[in-house]
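> call design_seq(struct)
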């Protein structure tokens, strides 16, 4: 009976009476081949071959029967390797040691194939199912119950699951950096060194070799990809990115931090911190504590600064003018003495709790003395809308008593009735006696009149008329004033125009000079009277 080779190692199976006299030699060969099947073999693939066959020989040695089989040769494309015969059911450890960075596709029949990348080793088995035979990765779903030590690199082609709570990955020869699972929470990153100044450092790097402006060096994103709402809900909701501000060079790595958030969109920049330390916020800044800055705070033209309950308390326009919608208050040192704005007034030197509103009609400024907590000693200036006699536009009170006042009508009140003008000879020059003022005073027409704006029925004032003085040759006593109003934005004053487009004007009279002229005329009258008295006396009464 003839020998056969139908076993998976293609050993000689001798028939009855076969190999008479050589039976021992055949048996020894079979034992050798069994040993080879547990050993190492190497097989070269023809250069740039697209296909290759590894055949386990019948009853004789060959590399294909080795458990560990190493393929060599040079390839320019993936090579399909057939493991033959296709009836062999066997386990192999295959190493792709070919040159050319190409993969090997291991097959046996029409069934599944296993790809082994260049430089990789895989454990596979063939099922020997003839023409439909398949090759399978033997280590798929490998479960190792104990510790595993890997002395070199580990490459994982798909998911890696660590299935125990508090699982930990340690890095370094002395496991000085760890990443630990925190059950139902996340990951804990730790530097296990116990010495001073040993923080955990996470560095995000880019491999790009030529950084230009607006390129991201790294970023952290926040997203809810499983959100059932879909659409906007699954977009990146927030991220923090490091973005270059210019082309990197030996002397430049200017970079900003971009803080991006989303409302119904992919996250976009809402705040940034520049390389120069400038913080730019596109929305509203709500600060719960102290904000300290070593640089400038810049808001948009006509933007607002406010509080949670009054978001538009302060506005700054494009020319730098500041508008307060409510008021301001300044405190320093003793909080009972401060400054604040309220009800159209600026108060200086007095606590708000001690307000005395009796003297606070209108809008203006009130300055209290440093001990005036009772509100009775102050100086105030008021913008008055009315024409009521006695309404002050400027007033000084001491302990409740008016010392001086300018009233809305133009009247001036003085508690002492004392008025002064600088008259020190040391400050004057060209001092001479005045000429006669007799004719000027005589030529002045003293009139009774009223101002049109008062709308009264009869004259209520006495004085002179500017135009009549000019006609009498005393124009130096008259001054012409052009009318204008303050500009709303604090710029140049705005002229007041008449119906013809010309700037309005009015005239005033220097009454203080008239008083001195009248004094000189009185002296002249006294001289005349004294001369007449002397003449009468010389006539005997």
């Amino acid at each position: 009976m003839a020998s056969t080779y139908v076993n998976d190692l293609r050993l000689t199976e001798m028939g009855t009476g076969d190999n008479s006299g050589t039976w021992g030699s055949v048996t020894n060969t079979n034992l050798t081949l069994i040993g080879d099947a547990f050993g190492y073999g190497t097989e070269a693939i023809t250069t740039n071959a697209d296909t290759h066959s590894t055949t386990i020989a019948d009853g004789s040695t060959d590399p294909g029967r080795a458990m560990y089989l190493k393929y060599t040769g040079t390839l320019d494309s993936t090579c399909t390797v057939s493991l033959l015969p296709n009836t062999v059911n066997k386990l192999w450890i295959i190493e792709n040691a070919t040159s050319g960075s190409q993969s090997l596709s291991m097959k046996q029949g029409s069934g599944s194939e296993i790809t082994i990348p260049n430089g990789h080793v895989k454990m596979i088995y063939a099922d020997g199912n003839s023409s439909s035979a398949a090759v399978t990765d033997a280590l798929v779903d490998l479960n190792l119950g104990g510790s595993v030590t890997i002395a070199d690199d580990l490459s994982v082609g798909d998911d890696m699951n660590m299935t125990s709570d508090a699982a930990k990955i340690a890095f370094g020869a002395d496991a000085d950096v760890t990443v630990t699972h925190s059950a139902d929470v996340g990951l804990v990153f730790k530097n296990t060194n116990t010495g001073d100044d040993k923080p955990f450092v996470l560095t995000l790097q880019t491999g790009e070799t030529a950084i230009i402006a607006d390129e991201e060096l790294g970023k952290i994103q926040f997203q809810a990809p499983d959100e059932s709402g879909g659409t906007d809900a699954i977009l990146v909701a927030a991220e923090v990115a490091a973005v270059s501000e210019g082309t990197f060079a030996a002397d430049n790595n200017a970079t900003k931090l971009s803080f991006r958030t989303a409302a119904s969109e992919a996250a976009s920049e809402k705040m940034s911190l520049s390389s120069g330390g400038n913080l730019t916020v596109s929305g509203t800044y709500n600060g719960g504590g102290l904000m300290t800055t070593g640089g400038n705070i810049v808001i948009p033209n006509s933007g607002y600064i406010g509080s949670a309950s009054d978001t538009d308390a302060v506005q700054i326009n494009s020319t730098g003018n500041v508008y307060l919608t409510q008021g301001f208050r300044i405190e320093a040192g003793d909080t009972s003495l401060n400054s604040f704005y309220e009800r159209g007034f600026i108060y200086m030197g007095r606590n708000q709790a001690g307000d005395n509103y009796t003297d606070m009609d209108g809008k203006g400024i009130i300055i209290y003395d440093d001990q005036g907590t009772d509100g009775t000693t102050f100086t105030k200036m008021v913008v008055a809308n009315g024409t009521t006699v006695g309404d002050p536009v400027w007033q000084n009170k001491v302990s409740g008593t008016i010392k001086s006042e300018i009233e809305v009508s133009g009247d001036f009140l003085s508690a002492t009735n004392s008025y002064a003008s600088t008259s020190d000879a040391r400050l004057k020059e060209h001092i001479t006696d005045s000429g006669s003022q007799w004719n000027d005073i005589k030529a002045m027409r003293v009139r009774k009149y009223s101002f049109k704006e008062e709308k009264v029925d009869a004259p209520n004032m006495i004085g002179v008329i500017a135009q009549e003085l000019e006609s009498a040759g005393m124009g130096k006593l008259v001054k012409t004033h052009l009318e204008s109003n303050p500009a709303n934005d604090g710029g140049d004053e705005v002229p007041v125009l008449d119906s013809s487009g010309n700037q309005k004007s009015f005239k005033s009279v220097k009454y203080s000079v008239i008083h001195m002229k009248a004094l000189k005329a009185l002296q002249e009258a006294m001289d005349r009277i004294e001369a007449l008295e002397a003449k009468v006396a010389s006539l005997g009464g």
